[in-house]
């Protein structure tokens, strides 16, 4: 397994997380970057492909700040730069709102039906796509395309369908919190009926049902991410086929005081939610939730979760 950090590079564990080693990280003071390393210390996205590398393990893709994509085909022992995206026509307009002088790869999605197709989202810069395993990249920017895709998903039972949760309502206008594409990212439809909170940050889709979707939202980025003495808030919504979004709260902690959570789904259709208030599970498509009995320290209550790995 792999863990990206914002200022200390990429780490790897070969024993299920009991111990970790730094890989592809920054050189010591006065040294130069080795040619086969990741040339940035800020790791912002990691994805392991089902396609196998030279060692028989999944190919590892790593996104950074400033925006760049690296790949390892030997389990993280060596990396090569695939792209720094500077050839993209809109590159000069990309920015991250909190650090407007830079931007980063926000999410990497390996297509569920073809591992040669890779999607990366740039915060803020839209969707960049490769159909040859990362060798070449193109922008997907037709019509009213989303610019700030926080999480992007594909589905094995819905070829060419993409799902995205967005921050675009704070770049453009309300009503652009969630969007879908049915043509691999060329065109998009905004599907926001029922959403009362306009900042969407996390999402999970049932692997067995491409219409069963849950998302995590908040009123704005500040109350989503900043604990601020318990003044943070987050809300969970569920959507099924041809329906509007409906808020779900049965079994979950109160929205007030809950930092926006991480959402995941496993192959059996179970949803998981990880927030500053614990880990929760839903076995009925996201309608009802139960808290998992995991020891929870008081200091966790003010911390922001960013990722969750479920091992079964």
UniProtKB/TrEMBL annotation:
State the Gene3D superfamilies in the record.
YVTN repeat-like/Quinoprotein amine dehydrogenase
Quote the SUPFAM superfamilies the UniProt record gives: Oligoxyloglucan reducing end-specific cellobiohydrolase (SSF110296)
What are the coiled-coil residue ranges?
none
Query: Is Hydrolase set as a keyword in this record?
Result: yes
- State the source organism's domain of life: Bacteria
> Which key words tag this protein in UniProt?
Hydrolase
The processes (GO biological process) annotated in the record are: xyloglucan metabolic process
Any one GO MF annotation of this record: hydrolase activity
Q: Which InterPro entries does the UniProt record give? A: WD40/YVTN_repeat-like_dom_sf, Xyloglucanase_GH74
Keyword set includes Hydrolase:
yes
List the protein's name. Answer: Glycosyl hydrolase
Name the source organism: Bacillus toyonensis
Q: What is the lineage of its organism?
A: Bacteria, Bacillati, Bacillota, Bacilli, Bacillales
